[in-house]
Amino acid sequence: MLLITTVGGTLLALLMDQPFWGQGIVRILVIAPFFVMPTVSALVWKNMFMNPVNGLFAHLAKFFGLQPYDFLAQAPLGSIIFIVSWQWLPFATLILLTALQSLDQEQLEAAEMDGAGPLSRFFYIMLPHLARAITVVILIQTIFLLSVFAEILVTTNGGPGVASTNLTYLIYMQSLLQFDVGGGSAGGVVAIILANIVAIFLMRMIGKNLEA
Amino acid sequence: MLLITTVGGTLLALLMDQPFWGQGIVRILVIAPFFVMPTVSALVWKNMFMNPVNGLFAHLAKFFGLQPYDFLAQAPLGSIIFIVSWQWLPFATLILLTALQSLDQEQLEAAEMDGAGPLSRFFYIMLPHLARAITVVILIQTIFLLSVFAEILVTTNGGPGVASTNLTYLIYMQSLLQFDVGGGSAGGVVAIILANIVAIFLMRMIGKNLEA
Amino acid sequence: MGRITLDKVTKSFGEVNVIPPLDLTINDGEFVVFVGPSGCGKSTLLRLIAGLEDVTSGQIRIDGEDATDMPPAKRGLAMVFQSYALYPHMSVRKNIAFPMKMAGVPQDEQNRRIEAAAKSLNLSDYLDRRPGQLSGGQRQRVAIGRAIVREPSAFLFDEPLSNLDAALRVNMRLEISELHNALKTTMIYVTHDQVEAMTMADKIVVLRAGNIEQVGSPLDLYHRPQNEFVAGFIGSPKMNLIRGAEAAKHGVATIGIRPEHLAASTEGGLWQGTVGVAEHLGSDTFLHVHDHGLGDEPMTVRVDGEMPVRHGDRIFLTPDESKLHRFDKQGLRV
Amino acid sequence: MGRITLDKVTKSFGEVNVIPPLDLTINDGEFVVFVGPSGCGKSTLLRLIAGLEDVTSGQIRIDGEDATDMPPAKRGLAMVFQSYALYPHMSVRKNIAFPMKMAGVPQDEQNRRIEAAAKSLNLSDYLDRRPGQLSGGQRQRVAIGRAIVREPSAFLFDEPLSNLDAALRVNMRLEISELHNALKTTMIYVTHDQVEAMTMADKIVVLRAGNIEQVGSPLDLYHRPQNEFVAGFIGSPKMNLIRGAEAAKHGVATIGIRPEHLAASTEGGLWQGTVGVAEHLGSDTFLHVHDHGLGDEPMTVRVDGEMPVRHGDRIFLTPDESKLHRFDKQGLRV
């Protein structure tokens, strides 16, 4: 689930980068969802778009003569991935956009003079330049996705079954809903260790960035 | 609550900056809490440190012959502020540290030659240089603190009464626990607007940063 | 072949007209330098020729063929950028090979050309390094190497030496001149430094505000500047320009005399003044003379070898009448 | 007063010995230039004098008083940094006032000094701007203004002109020289550019790897370089150094002849070779002569005015015997 979200988000952000170069207002609109609180966004999605009776998607589906689809019940994991991606896409976009803008324009022009078409320029010049930024995005998202909590609680409550339960939610359930404090704490320690392993990689990256 | 946390965090981070210059390992340790998931951190604090029976603080208090203190029950707001500050301090530290390192060393040396002591250097050279970074930190924290959700749920469940309830938690309670979807949605919209007003200021800042 | 013709070329950025209609012919094998103060449009002109900017109107012909709407890669020109514009994630070898890879040159041929370029540019030992591990001069050479292997019909240089220090700049200047002597390929070189222009060019194009002020060989420009701007821009130290009564004696608005065409003496002469700063270089002495009554600017005099004068000394100056430049009210040569 | 004495000063960074024991005396009112290739320790030496670095051993005396352990502000020296080091959030006026504010100078006196400095540096119109709104040359002047108002016993300049372009550099060089003529204050100036050193200095200190290679006036260094390093470093273009059989004829390991002391002729002379690159500056012509049989390096010749030779022409060179420099095996002057 984490991998799908991050890779998907990264690719989408990369594609989205192209037309937005330097267009301030569009940029703010794109970045806005990032500042919407997780709980709020989950609620909004749940009630306004995906609700099988009153949701916008249901209305749309009806409009096209299709059966309304109870997204959260039928495809809980897919829905959550969709919501979380929607929230994190701007973050990836912002970081990759900054990275792209730091690319020396003369390098692109040199490649153009050297006979590289738009596709070659993207693969030979831009992608290597973005490599580090992409890694940072993936790492940061991994850490935060480990703790996607609010969305799960509000939308699916971990269900049906454990189909959309992740580590954080598991800890929450263990320790508070089932009052198994020991198991919860153990899970918490595991989570901290996991997060810190990723964090160490991330710090190394940022350290390299600061040096460069 | 928001103001106390952010200003407190900022000042603490500024003080913490000084000794950590360039010391990689110390830096990682300082930044680690930032990557611990909110739920986990809240749980750890609740059960391991502040629990009146088994918590570390209770043991400490007993060791000094004092009455164990049930932090979360007696001072819910203070405890939450403490936990959240502990989580966000590294973030402020990281941003301010980067800003400090971007300060031209020759400017400090010039001020030293000009007869400015350490205190004058801090107020006349460093603080103006950090002004923008401090604003960014305050804005970002404001946005995220609006949505401190997990901590509240896990530690105090918004209580006692509504002493530690903030906007996000209010929405959660309204819409899910009391099944008042309308009120919850309204709250959600208010929250989104609030966040976006702050976000616009933030974007302007970042925009200026990119230009400079 | 590398004959480039610009025919009534103009360029506007929005409302701003950067280059008014401009005609220019660059012959095959020539070393042409575009020189002018910053903002004079010299880089824009080079980028128009390269195809990195589109012309607003007019025609660019390369070897007689209309290249106005050709993409940059098809024009057969190679460019060396001010920032070198090397690809930081590729080794020197891959950097040099990149244009050939894009053009689909066979691997054997690629290797042959890389070896030849690396040898002639003293880069053979660095082929497997990254650009980040090289010094400024070496990066410059890699950028030139990347241009050479394309075997272009003309090289375009955009202020290639401006990021190097003084000593290295002199060396690279010589290397580029030697490269031109060896390859005999057309080269177009943009700089704001008139010394670079004078030492390297077959033909100098002096630009100001997008207009061509004068086109000619370095010695043409030195001996017969067409106007005051060229007179003041070419030559180091700058020509002394004198207005007012003294110029009126010669029947013109302004007279100009180069520092090396003024004779200095402590005994007597046509003009007199006091020595301000005296720069003793050993091979020459430059005197900056104040209070000469000919204007507000100090006059500069060049004396061969040494002259034992100090700050505040009285000095007499006599111009070489045959080397006097005369300009009318519009600043044009008389 | 501004007499600075360095007595057996050394500086190590960890294990690396940057400055071996070094003695130097700078007299009151002198313009001293530290010059040398990058990494020679010239900036470190300046920072030791400023007090921004601590000496490892030895003593620094300012006007006879031991200043070795004094904090920078107490030494009465003012420094102009390479990056100018202006305070970006303060106006020009506040920048200039800052050292006086720190020293507690009364407001009236502050204003008087600011006005005087701004007037002499042509900054009066810019006092309320921020440094970010100024050009490079103006920023440079603000940095100098901030130094002047402190009325220091000596000015320290750390490569102050390296961020300016060629034309502006020549102007600022003159302005700093004029400032020294006007103030008569001790100035210590660090640069890697030997032309700046030659034109500005009363006394040049040539450094290599932390060692003083030679101390002397510009003309001392030009006429009597103590060793091959100084001979090659001072003078532009560089001195031609010839080793082997030709030098043996003079009974030494190396002989050196400056480009301006070689006579060039197309008819006949002592040595012969072919012209490589010919740089025609108008006032002079620099010829780079290859295949002269005297070594691998091309010889450089300076000819006054013009000489109508081209790439590949045969040319004869005759050195002025009285201007020949002779060096032994250790590279020391004989």
UniProtKB/TrEMBL annotation, chains C, D:
It comes from the Bacteria. This is ABC transporter ATP-binding protein. Belongs to the ABC transporter superfamily. It holds the Pfam family TOBE_2. The keyword Nucleotide-binding applies. InterPro entries: AAA+_ATPase, ABC_transporter-like_ATP-bd, ABC_transporter-like_CS, ABC_transpr_MalK-like, ABC_transpr_MalK/UgpC-like, Mo/tungstate-bd_C_term_dom, NA-bd_OB-fold, P-loop_NTPase. Keywords: ATP-binding, Nucleotide-binding, Transport. Gene3D superfamilies: 2.40.50.100, Nucleic acid-binding proteins (2.40.50.140), P-loop containing nucleotide triphosphate hydrolases (3.40.50.300). GO terms for cellular component: ATP-binding cassette (ABC) transporter complex, substrate-binding subunit-containing; maltose transport complex. GO terms for molecular function: ABC-type maltose transporter activity; ATP binding; ATP hydrolysis activity. Residues 4-234 form the ABC transporter domain. It comes from Alloyangia mangrovi. The keyword Nuclease does not apply.
